[in-house]
Amino acid sequence: MKIISTFAELMKTTIIKERLQSALIAILFISVFLPFGLNHFGWIRWALLAGLGLIIAFCVLISELTVEKLFRMPNDISRGSKYIIKRNIRFETLNIFLSVILMCIFLDAFANNATVDNHYSWQTLGYVIAVNCFTTVVIHVYWRSVYKKRYLIRQLEEAQLLNGMLQERQRREAQPEPQTNDAISPTPADDDAVINISGATKESLDVRPSQVIFATSEGNYVNIYYIIDDKPNNMLIRTSMKNVSELLCRQSYIMQCHRAYIVNLRHVAKVESRNSGIALVMQYGNDTVLVSKQYSAEVKERIKNPSTIA
To answer: How far is the C-alpha of 214 from the C-alpha of 224, rounded, in Å?
Structure first.
């Protein structure tokens, strides 16, 4: 009873529905190309196709149940791409192994006549393996396209959400604060004191972290973009991104977002959705800062949490 309840529970999951869709694609592929000489069986071919379809569906379900319960590898994308790849390799290996054995037994028992010889042999075994491997590739290409489309849609929706949050923050910042008679001129926070960014040559830059827009690596130099009196400037300094990162990334609103970019999240005007992930459009000059997948989640989290970049 426990096995039956586990199987019934597994049948409700999204991954099983996708596996059954894969099985349907495989049988449609076989129905179109009619391998194993199925075109020589007249109307009986439909019974044979139904039998092969049941075998494919059975192998898919057993393989998924085995990976899920026996190998203790649930379908959990939060564990990362390496885990999912490893899980899928185990599933595909087991699925092909079971499919080849059962299909060979089925063909040997039911798919033979005066024209077609599907009795068990090395030739039949090779043919069945080739068909299974080819259908696996077709299914892989299909799901790669589906997941890429889902990813892009989700990425676009998240970019729209982040842009809404950025616009709201910019709107609040644009509103003038009420003045009182005893108001005093604001002074920079202690953690926004002027820092000196220097390198191997005499060029150096004295700037407050809040004034930095972004920095980008250009060979042996780092190009630092900053604002003075609301006007964008930049300076090329012969130094490393590591040195600049150690000076600037002490602030919660400044972070490295790419191997070649450091960005001040306070100066982000818009988030762009791209095939490779997201990019940040800056307020001054509309420069675009790339965000690598390694830093994408942290960038999104900091933008969603205004206190980290206040």
So the answer is: 6
Tens digits of residue pLDDT in 256-287? 999 999 999 999 999 998 877 899 999 988 89
- Please check whether residue 226 is in contact with residue 207, taking contact to mean a CB–CB distance below 8 angstroms: yes
Query: What integer pLDDT is reported at residue 149 of this predicted model?
Result: 84
Q: Where are the beta strands (DSSP E) in the chain?
A: 195-198, 204-207, 212-218, 221-228, 231-237, 254-258, 261-264, 268-274, 277-282, 288-291
CA distance 78 to 88: 15
138 sits in which H/E element:
helix 122-174
- pLDDT tens digits for 201-240? 888 999 999 999 999 999 999 999 999 988 999 999 999 9
Cα 7 to its chain centre, rounded Å, is 29
- Retrieve residue 183's tokens: 């108001």
- What spatial distance separates the first Cα and last Cα of the chain, rounded to whole Å? 57
Distance CA 231, CA 236 (A): 17
pLDDT of residue 199: 83
Angle, CA of 60, 63 and 65, to the nearest 5°:
105
Partner residues linked to 277 by β-bridges: 274
| Burial environment of residue 257 by CB neighbours within 10 A (0 to 12, 13 to 18, 19 or more) | buried
How far lies 49's CA from each of 96, 114, 221, 275, 300, in Å? 18, 19, 65, 39, 49
Q: Which two tokens stand for residue 292?
A: 């690598």
Coil vs helix vs strand at 135 = helix
User: What residue type is assigned to position 76 of the chain?
Assistant: D
214 close to 262: Cβ distance less than 8 angstroms: yes
pTM for this structure?
0.64
Spatial distance between the Cα atoms of 147 and 155, rounded to a whole number of angstroms: 12
CA separation, residue 218 to residues 79, 214, 238, 307 (Å): 35, 13, 9, 32
